[in-house]
Amino acid sequence: MTKHSKLERERRAAESERMVEIGRAWTASIPAPVAAEFAKEVAAAQTRVYEKPADMAPGTLPNPPRPGREPKPVREENPRGRR
Description:
Elements: H1 6-29, H2 32-47
């Protein structure tokens, strides 16, 4: 976890308050029906669940490892111990 100085935390809090103030002023400057429609779309977007796309297309074979990059074979345990 990153620690921030008291000055940094205060600056971030003031910045957040200023952004909220700007957002309220912008919302007040547009017509009420447009603001209501925008608020409805924002609420719908915030409730939407993000689904991560698949890494590869369905049915695509994975690429084999590059030469010299093959995984090491599984080591069998030596029952007599190590020397």
